[in-house]
Every structure is written in C-alpha cells, then in structure tokens.
Specification:
TBP-interacting protein, binds zinc ion, alpha+beta, TIP_N, 2 domains, 13 strands, Nucleoside Triphosphate Pyrophosphohydrolase, TBPIP_C, four-stranded antiparallel β-sheet, TIP_N_sf
Length: 226
C-alpha cells in the first residue's frame, strides 16, 4: 500500500504525532502502531467514528501495551476497559504523558552470541499516569519519578545516586554487580512526599539516611522554589 492510498482520517491523525521521536510508527490501513523507542512498549492507535465504536474496541485487547481510540470530536477524554478514548486534539499530549511514565528501572548484563550485552528494564506506570491526568499534574513541576534500590543488607531504600556510596559502607562494590532492579517512586512536590506506583506513601523510615537527605533536598528545594 502507498501512503497516498491511506484513509484521510488515518493520515490526519498520523500527521499530528509523527514528530514525537520517542516513538516509531507503523502505519496500517485502519490503525497506527507506535513503539516506544527505548522500551519497545507498543501503543495501538485506532481512528474511530463514534464513542460506541471506541467502547466496542475497548472490549478486546491485542496483547500488552496501550490502546487508544481517537475520535474526530473536540472534547472527549476518558478511559474505559484500560483504553484511552479521546479526541484527536488530546492525542499528542497524551502520548507525551505516556512517554513520561515509561521509566528505566534497571538492567542486567547477559551473554549473547559470545558477547556481554546490557538489557535494560523499563516500567510503564499506568496507575500514576491516570492519577496525574486526573489531577492535572505536570512532570518536573508537580512530581518526578526516581529510582530507588532496596538494599539487600539493611532493607532500606537508597536513591540511585547514593547507591555506590551506600553499598560501599556494607563492603559491597557496585561495579561487581551484573544486574540491578530498582523501584520507581514518585517524588510528589504538591504533597511533599514519596509515593509508590500504587499511590501509597512510602514512609521516611523505609529509606536509608542518604536517601532521606536526598528526598529532603529535592522536595524542600522544589517547595521553596515555588
Ligand atoms: Zn544498606
């Protein structure tokens, strides 16, 4: 199929999102499939005529990833059966929001074809995304995501920057590790606290002293900067 033969609605929707280089796009006759570049997480975008059609589509899922049904009207935005049903004009911003919620969560080094390669782990934080959309929270302004490592020696969470120093105190050299898996927490500047992906606050006593100082710096700084 040639690009010129595509349905006009598909072309119009595609033209609105093709500059988002966090994704690459496959364009089909009736849908656009995006892959988040770093994580390969798929996003299926279907152009529909009505809410009824969108809701019907929301009942079927083609596998992991995010489904979006795009409507031609001006003021629709809701989530049904995990599918985003939204007006064309909200699509680009929503894809940018989704990108903000796919977070690097660790790595492992594996042997493949006689070489050592790093595999990266990413996490899609769908629960926080919905909460942030509902309360109009902006990444970098109202919250940031941060990686924390649960120390196998003392059981406390350590922020990623403080990890080498923290592990050194236990006599562990992080350079010897071939994998690390982090918990991604939200530093919420509005609430002044740290939250896990389920929206539960993580109390300060769960963090190592270095991480507590880091959180105080981050949250205190943001508050006084406002
Ligand atoms: Zn420790």
């Amino acid at each position: 199929m040639k690009y010129s033969e595509l349905n006009g609605n598909v072309k119009r929707v595609y033209a609105k999102i093709r500059m988002l280089d966090d994704y690459h796009w496959d364009i089909h006759k009736d849908k656009i499939i995006g892959y988040h570049r770093k994580s390969e997480f798929p996003i299926r975008i279907r152009v529909v005529e009505s809410k009824e059609e969108a809701e019907k589509l929301s009942e079927q899922k083609d596998g992991p990833g995010i489904d979006i049904a795009v409507l031609p009207d001006a003021n629709t935005f809701y989530i049904k059966n995990g599918t985003f049903i939204l007006s064309e004009r909200f699509l680009k911003a929503t894809l940018m929001d989704i990108n903000d919620h796919i977070i690097w969560g660790g790595f492992r080094v594996i042997e493949r074809d006689g070489k050592l390669v790093q595999e990266d782990l990413y996490e899609y934080l769908g629960g926080p995304l919905v909460r942030h959309l509902k309360s109009n929270m902006m990444n970098g302004q109202d919250y940031v995501f941060w990686q924390f490592y649960k120390c196998e020696k003392c059981g406390k969470f350590v922020d990623i920057e403080s990890l080498p120093e923290h592990m050194a105190k236990h006599g562990i050299n992080v350079a010897e590790k071939d994998n690390e898996k982090y918990e991604v927490f939200e530093l919420n500047f509005i609430e002044g606290g740290v939250f896990n992906k389920f929206g539960e606050e993580v109390p300060q006593n769960k963090f190592a002293p270095e991480a507590q100082a880091f959180i105080r710096d981050m949250i205190g700084e943001q508050k006084s900067g406002k």
